[in-house]
C-alpha cells in the first residue's frame, strides 16, 4: 500500500504542474487571440482561410507591441503620444483611469523602477505573524510626511491566488529584506509554503530524513 501511494504521489508531481501550466497557457492564448477582433472581419483568418489558427493572436499582439515601441522611440512617435495624452487629459473620467494606469505601467516596466523588485518579510496581520510581501515603492508622499516616519510601500498578496491582496505602508525598520527572487517568492506563496526556494532551506530541513525512506 505504501508503495502504491508513493507511485501515485510521484505521478501527481508530474501531472499537476504540467496540467496547471497547460491550462494557464491555454487561457493566455485564448485571451490574446481576442486581439484578432481588431482586424476587419474580411481580413480575419476565418474569412481568408476558412478556419482559425490558435496562437495567431499571440503573434499579432507581440507584433503590435513591438511596432508601437519602435514608433514611440523616435521624435515623431513621442510627439504623437504627447498629443494623445493631452487628449486623454481632457476627458474627466478617462483622465483619472489613464493617468493611474500609465503611472503603474511606468513603475512596473521601467528598468529604474523599484516595484516588485524585492521580496520582504513583514509582521502581518498582527505582531508575531510573519508573511511575504513585495516592495512596490519607497515614496509614500503625504502619508510619510504625516507620520513622520520612513515607510515602505508593500503589497501583501493572498495565497494561493496572488492577484488579490493588501497594500500597506510599513516603517522601514519593521521590514526584513529577503535574498530570494520575486519568482521564488511567488512560488512559495502559490504553493502555500509547500515549495521552499533552493538555497533558502534551513539546516533543519536539509539535514532531515527523506520521508520516502
From TrEMBL:
Keywords: Membrane, Transmembrane, Transmembrane helix. The chain crosses the membrane at residues 7-29, 49-76. Pfam families: DUF502. The keyword Membrane applies. The keyword Transferase does not apply. PANTHER family: COV-LIKE PROTEIN 1, PROTEIN LIKE COV 2. This is Membrane protein.
Amino acid at each position: 500500500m505504501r508503495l502504491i501511494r508513493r507511485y501515485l504521489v510521484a505521478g501527481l508531481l508530474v501531472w499537476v504542474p504540467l496540467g496547471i501550466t497547460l491550462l494557464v497557457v491555454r487561457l493566455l492564448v485564448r485571451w490574446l487571440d481576442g486581439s484578432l477582433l481588431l482586424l476587419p472581419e474580411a481580413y480575419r483568418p476565418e474569412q481568408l482561410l476558412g478556419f482559425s489558427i490558435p496562437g495567431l493572436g499571440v503573434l499579432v499582439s507581440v507584433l503590435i507591441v513591438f511596432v508601437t515601441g519602435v514608433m514611440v522611440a523616435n521624435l515623431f512617435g513621442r510627439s504623437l503620444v504627447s498629443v494623445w495624452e493631452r487628449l486623454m487629459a481632457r476627458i474627466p473620467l478617462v483622465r483619472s483611469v489613464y493617468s493611474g494606469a500609465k503611472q503603474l505601467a511606468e513603475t512596473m516596466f521601467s528598468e529604474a523602477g523599484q516595484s516588485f523588485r524585492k521580496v520582504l518579510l513583514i509582521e502581518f496581520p498582527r505582531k508575531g505573524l510573519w508573511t511575504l510581501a513585495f516592495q512596490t515603492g519607497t515614496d509614500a508622499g503625504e502619508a510619510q510626511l504625516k507620520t513622520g516616519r520612513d515607510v515602505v510601500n508593500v503589497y501583501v498578496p493572498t495565497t494561493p491566488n496572488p492577484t488579490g491582496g493588501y497594500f500597506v505602508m510599513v516603517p522601514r525598520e519593521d521590514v526584513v529584506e529577503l535574498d530570494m527572487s520575486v519568482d521564488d517568492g511567488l512560488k512559495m506563496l502559490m504553493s502555500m509554503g509547500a515549495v521552499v526556494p533552493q538555497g533558502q532551506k534551513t539546516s533543519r530541513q536539509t539535514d532531515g530524513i527523506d520521508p520516502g525512506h
